[in-house]
Amino acid sequence: MSRSADIIVALDVTSIADVKRLVEELGDSVNTYKVGMELFYSAGPEAVHMVRSAGKNVFLDLKLHDIPNTVAQGAKALTSLGADFISIHATGGSNMMRETARIVGTAAASQGLTRPKLLAITVLTSIGQTEWQELRFPGDIGDQVVHLAKLAQQAGIDGVVASPQEAGNIRRACGDNFLIVTPGVRPAGSAINDQSRIATPSGAVKAGANYLVIGRPITASANPRAATEAIRQEMEACS
Ligand SMILES: O=C(O)c1cc(=O)[nH]c(=O)n1[C@@H]1O[C@H](COP(=O)(O)O)[C@@H](O)[C@H]1O
After folding, report:
1. Residue 56 neighbours by CB under 8 Å, 6+ apart
2. Phi/psi at 48 (5° precision)
3. Do the annotations mark residue 67 as ligand-binding?
4. If DSSP codes are grouped into helix, strand and coil, which group holds residue 156?
5. 137 FRET partner, CA 20 to 30 A, in 23, 89, 145, 208?
6. What residues have CB less than 8 Å from 119, skipping those under 6 apart?
7. Catalytic positions, please?
């Protein structure tokens, strides 16, 4: 099913100066940015403040993965930074996801903040069939992604991060109100890099994604704004 979807640009850079340059250059063509490990470990919370002060939404993608108490308390600390989305690993288990949802809800309410949306990472989009088998995980990647999405939903998580190749089945299994965020998006002809389970922007939208996380096809482009606008046009043409 096609729906209106938005772009999240992955700020996989190391300095506040790079963030500032990209956010200024992309202007009103982008509403939401992702601050991931590379940027957060290099520049710290200032990266989140910088993006928020530009009036943009922040997906704080630190992919928390630990025992329930540790992840819940870590996510509570990230909630105080004012992130709009926070990621945790679904493979941390139901108890971890449930406890994180509970603690984040309480923390946001007590600080008068909007509760950030919690997103569960399913199976990384860089993992293909060969690596899946090397890890000795049984069964089909797509089936496992849908299974993890259902567990996340039952644990009170708002949505998942998955490949666009799985978005259609997640949508059918988890319904219209569950968020589906898809990295692994590659416009036709662009470099695949280290991604494996990929699709085009229009493919991701048609499969039912709410947000497309896009990094290098935009940030490594000679003209990031033109690259973003071309992706937006492709998305709008099919929604
Ligand atoms: O959580 C993510 O955003 C994520 C999950 C996943 O399974 N695959 C994945 O690529 N990502 C992130 O999405 C972004 C993709 O960047 P590009 O491959 O440059 O478009 C990176 O910042 C990754 O950290």
Report:
1. 23, 30, 31, 32, 33
2. -65, -45
3. yes
4. coil
5. 208
6. 59, 85, 86, 87, 88, 157, 158, 159, 160, 161, 179, 181
7. 61, 63, 66
Q: Is 66 part of any known ligand binding site?
A: yes
pLDDT band at 238 (very low <50, low <70, confident <90, very high): confident
**Mind listing the pLDDT tens digit for each residue in 5-34?**
999 999 999 999 999 999 999 999 999 999
Q: What is the pLDDT of residues 163-214, one digit of tens each?
A: 999 999 999 999 999 999 999 999 999 999 999 999 999 999 999 999 999 9
pTM: 0.97
Domains and CATH numbers, the chain: 6-237 (3.20.20.70)
Side chain identity at residue 164, one-letter code: P
Ligand 1 pocket residue status of 159, Cβ below 6 Å: no
Q: H helices within 15-66, ranges in order?
A: 16-26, 37-43, 46-53
Token pair in block for residue 13: 């850079």
- What CA–CA distances, in Å, run from 49 to 8, 45, 55, 66? 17, 6, 10, 26
The preferred substitution site among 63, 87, 125 for testing ligand 1, maximizing ligand atoms within 8 Å of CB, is 125
